Amino acid sequence: MDWTAGLQGLVGGVLIGLSATWLMATLGRIAGISGIVGNLITQRPKGDSAWRVAFLLGLISGPLLLMALGGGLGNVAGSPGEVIGAPVGGIGIMLVAGLLVGVGTGLGSGCTSGHGVCGLARLAPRSMAATGMFLLTALVTVYISRHLLGLGGVQ
Amino acid sequence: MNSSMKSSMSESNKNRWVKTAAGYAAGLIFGLGLAVSGMTDPARVVGFLDVAGAWDPTLMFVLGGAVVTTFIGYRLVFKRSAPLLGGVFQLPTKRELDAKLLGGAALFGIGWGLSGYCPGPAIASIGGLSLPLLAMLATMVLGWFVAKRFAAKRLA
């Protein structure tokens, strides 16, 4: 097992938790990306958009900052020094995946951050159910696409 | 304009800037967390989901570290009655496990498994300037509008 990758995962996870704690402490908001960005784009809530735009810019600038520092703190599998990994699917698959992720997180009111991190930390039953569900369908999807259909990614 | 009005206006302007800065800081730390943990590499995410292949446990450490930190952090935060910069804590109040929640989560999981991107890492990886990712972001936004329309129709 790759312990360095796991340790970086743990450190990064703690940073994500600190971000969620900070956002709740200062603005009283759940750090759910699909909610913050999705509502910004689809509703443009008046008087409630500036912090969302700022969060979005911060989110994009985090990896860029690591790249500017030389990339040594990145954790891309098999590519030390890289921060942002390449997509595993072509444009066709990604178009379909994007639609599913958008519709799904829109209807399900959250994604890995809102339900998976903040919701589980609040011990919220809806988030536990949602997290169990999207983990299950993701596992099944990867099993079918990789092992039954032989699609996607380096084998 | 008298001086007390002037000072209260500059006070609210200042508060707006502080709130915006707090939002930026939250996004930046979140983005750093995703990058340091390797979640900006979809191969790591799919590697975690591929339990029948060469399993990559990294995501488990990320989620574990994030949930435990947030659990402790929220306990400290909720000792206060309100957020530091004003307003109220905005927490979801819905309780029911309905078809919209579970169906939505199921669809999201399929998209997540196909691409290895959930919304956070997908957006945080924009700096990689890859065409497939940009394609995905476009349909993700489209999907958010579709979901909003669907939800509005169901309510009407």
TrEMBL record, chain A:
Keywords: Cell inner membrane, Cell membrane, Membrane, Transmembrane, Transmembrane helix, Transport
Transmembrane segments: 20-41, 53-72, 84-107, 128-149
InterPro entries reported for this sequence: Sulf_transp_TsuA/YedE (IPR007272)
Domain of life: Bacteria
Predominant location category: membrane
Locations listed in the record: Cell inner membrane
Membrane topology: Multi-pass membrane protein
GO cellular component: plasma membrane
Family: Belongs to the TsuA/YedE (TC 9.B.102) family.
Protein name as it appears in the record: UPF0394 membrane protein
Organism: Vreelandella boliviensis LC1
